[in-house]
Amino acid sequence: MNKMDKKIRLKYVIIILILCIVPQCFIAMQQYPLLVGDDMGVISLPAFLSGRQWDDIWRSVAFYGGGYHILLTPLFILTNNPLIIYRGVLLSYVLLEAVIAIIAFYILRHYYQCDEVYASVLSILCSYFTYTKPTYVSNEIVLLLGLWLVILIILKLIEYGEEKRKKQLLSILLCFISSYLITIHLRSSALLIAIVFTIITYYLYKKKSLVSPIVSAVCFPLLYFAAQKFNNIVQSTIWITDGITEINNSNIIDGAENIVKLFNVQYWHAWAAIFLGQLSTVSIMSIGMLCPVFIWSLVFLYKMIRKQELRTKKNMSTAVIIILMSASIIITLGGQSITWLDHAYDSIQMGAYNSNDDPNINFARVFTYLRYFSFYTNPLLIIGLVNLKGNTKKNKKIMKWGIALYCFLQVLWFLLVFPYICNIRSVADVYIPFSIENYGIGYAGSKVYLPAIILCTAFFLLIVLLYHRKKSLMGLVILCIFVIYQYTYYGIVHENPWWDRGDGSYNLMRTYINELPFDHIYVPYEAMAYEFQFLFNDISVNISLPDNNVEEAVIFTNLYPIEGERYWTNLENQGYQSIKIDDNEYVFIKGEKFVQWFSKILEMQQ
Known about the structure:
23 helices, 5 strands, globular, 3% strand, mainly alpha, 62% helix, single chain
């Protein structure tokens, strides 16, 4: 590569970084702490290592690894300001997504000789095309980066397959990355299985090993054992206390007993609805473009098997990516369809009476919940779109079949899934940005789902038309704009309204956070307790009511208007004084010292 080529490539890399980092940083800096049980499980390790005493919280949250967030421990040590910690964690995700875009750009240029402009747009699309956005704490973005690193290493293994030394080093690196992902989330076990399947398939197809067999046989067991040991230490140190030995999310075969139910005809509708619901929903998230990509993948693999002359290095690289992603999707979605089968079945049994008022509302989430498998579609979409760029007769045919698949999925979705989620707006995450309603609680129905499907269908057809007319770049830009819009909607419109669960209490007390006269509070409602524990992260939060005989206690709640007669009147009878903090937050105080302290604060605030 000459100096001019390097300068041109650097220019596009800088443009990609600016377009990925600047908007995402802006969105991240708009976020306020939104913590649920999953999020608290993710950040438990750095909180523990920085000396936080969140014992009651740790008894109720699931295990979500710690291999990445342990690196953020210094952030928890340096400050106890929840906004700085929260936004600092989110900003780290933004940097990871920028790295993902650069890896994608390198692969597109180096292995597919894609022109700089097209590769840049695809790379930006890659950074924004995620179901889990960096607007709340999670592991998925770290897993997505790990996935792209695995793809890059495998492509390098194919490229340097005849160079023994490089092959050994790359094999060690593949073993390390794949084992390390186990410390991020046990869900990455699906990727591990898919990697092994891909290596075996490659050997059967090419009659030679993709990795260095001896090096991999020695390194992988050791690194995998180390990863499992790390997880065990974290679990036994933080979660297993006071005789509690069962930890949610610490076993990859939870729900495996549901396999036998697949032989029961009564469960077939529920099982099929999980697949159809999620595949249809992910097609909406991609503005339909995953459908022609799925068709292209099948056609590509079929031709690779049938025609010897197509087995070039470039085509082998593409085939390996397709096999790896397809295996990961099938394993993940198949596993979820088994472990969540009871939820799907119960939701269907409730029928159209499913609503936000039902305590089992989460049952219906299985039909649209893309968090588990959708990040595997990210590389598949990018590689598929670069291969569909050419306006060939074959690609035109694939696009037509893609339209047919899209229509087929939407029709089946309306018949088998829509009746059981039509009343639930909170499971319509993917559809809300394209609807005429806002996210929240309430009836969903035609105002949420139908406008989204009609709009996405119209623009899907427009993008296909542009591809047909040799304007694939314009079509790709439209797709990219829609994906960025989804991302921005979630970051600004979707998440922020939930901040009001504890903002009044935090704003009231933040000035005096270092001189609180109490070292623990009670928040007898899990969702609110997680939020309060993070906001007041230097004190302990109990997810319960205090004993009746305590002389001093502070109870925060935002349930008073709902449960006043039945739940809180007893507290007032026990000597608690209630103070209304804002429209939806209250504090109940018992003990003269605490009452005087809160009275003093309220006077100063006025």
